[in-house]
Amino acid sequence: IIGYYMSSIDHNEIQKNYNNIDEIWTKEDSWHFYTFGKIKKFIKNEIKLLDLGNNFTLLNAGSAGNDYEINCEKHIHVDLIEKNIIDKPHHIIGTIEKLPLKNNEMDFILCVGSVINYTDALCTIQEFSRILNTKGYLILEFENSYSFEYFLTNSFKKKANIVNTFYKNKEEKVWIYSHKFMKELLVLNNFKIIKSKNFHILSPLIYRFYKNEKVASKFSIFDSFLSYIPFLKNYSSNIILLCQKV
């Protein structure tokens, strides 16, 4: 991690962009709607397999108000956009890089929808490790610099880099992190990775050359096959991990 340096993405810019969006995941945006489906399925399956019951506390980092149908004792929503979470019984308006919570206070952390790509990943993962119980769980999803979307650019395979990507047919700035670097950060902060799932493998390559996310998203049907090929799966645009603090 020597030489790793983070400048920051402007939180005011994020607030301005997302304040104007009524619904984060819509069918019209086929690329991100597919992503949402994959995330929901992973969360549902893993929480069921962990057999936690509903007697646990959960931090939903950058939730945009999504509950993901999780039943738990206390569900804390965190988001920069007030309107998304103001009606939730437990909510924190602000960045996930610094949270007003005690050490070892949470049993479970959810950070999906590429939320970590809007933050300094090192700060965020350190903060998650601080507030999570030993043996607590983290589900983390992020955008990977090995994605074919960045093929033939100087961002391809970078540990960390700011890039212009797309959301709701508009360009936006985000951090991208390599899958190797993200795993290094997790291990350094006392997390072990239990399971990972890769998606959007071929579709980013199509997007790279056609610059049309609707056309590209149709190629995500090949994910279920390609994700079993060890060499290829590392080049997915999105990776979701189940981790445990040890």
From TrEMBL:
It comes from Aliarcobacter butzleri L351. Residues 90-140 form the Methyltransferase type domain. CDD domains: AdoMet_MTases. This is Methyltransferase type 11 domain-containing protein. InterPro entries: Methyltransf_11, SAM-dependent_MTases_sf. It comes from the Bacteria. GO terms for molecular function: S-adenosylmethionine-dependent methyltransferase activity. The lineage of its organism: Bacteria, Pseudomonadati, Campylobacterota, Epsilonproteobacteria, Campylobacterales.
